[in-house]
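=== Discrete structure encoding ===
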Amino acid sequence: MKLIECVPNFSEGKNRSVVDSIVSEIASVHDVKILDVELDANHNRSVVSFTSPPEVAVEAAFRGIRKAAELIDMDSHKGEHPRFGASDVIPFIPVSDVSLKECVELARELGKRVGEEINIPVFLYSDAATTESRKNLEDIRNRNFQYEQIRVEIGKGQYVPDFGPLEVSKAGVSIIGARNFLVAYNVNLHSQNMEIGKKIAKALRAKDGGLAFVKALAFYLEDKKCVQISMNLTNFKKTPIYRAYEMVKLEASRYGIEIMESEVIGLVPLEAIVESSRFFLRMNGFKSNQIFETRVWE
């Protein structure tokens, strides 16, 4: 059975009714299964996970992006997480009997439709990128270059979109791509010191000499009054969850800081949990319905 996953990230994490409306649009496509919807008020961001056969995946994602453009005004959006647009990042991921190359084709098909039919500028990233400089998401959009900057720089130099207009509306810009599974994993610290948080995140990041296949940023969570180390583990087989956790614990201990809690965002492959089970057994809050295979095949 051919099956792909799509994990669109929307710039709304506070208003549940807005997110529900977007998810309803995605779910309105036949053979689409919504696996998970997570809202984060601090990041003001939601992450939706759905699976479908490849032939309907583009239509489902397109409907979600179109609805988000109607409901989310980026001019008034504020949140901790870097963002470019209402439908910020939309990756396609192969699950079964589908190649990464096929997911690249889906990403480019979606990008073309979004650019032409909704008039949203689109940048292709990861394996769908058309230039080497757009392989890494953080090279397109990062903490220092977000919605406010792209509004001014769109169409200039490296910021010519792959599809869509050379101007930005209130829906912002979408970044669409194809990739393999990654694990989104956060560790919250018993600390409010952002400078220390940034040092810990830097020690973890692969590009700064840390763990291979780890991307990391530090955020301040207003509701919990703590620093969060937010990570993407882009190859959980080579850098498993437990290793990232232990590295945060080690670096935090240098500053006399303990870990408050950790969390998985969205779904993760069963293999990743089996590999790290000894750590998850002593962590609070992890549920069996966060395992990707459980939700797909239940």
Summary: Residues 36 and 49 are 5 Å apart (CA to CA). The chain has two domains: 3-178, 183-297. The longest strand covers residues 87-96.
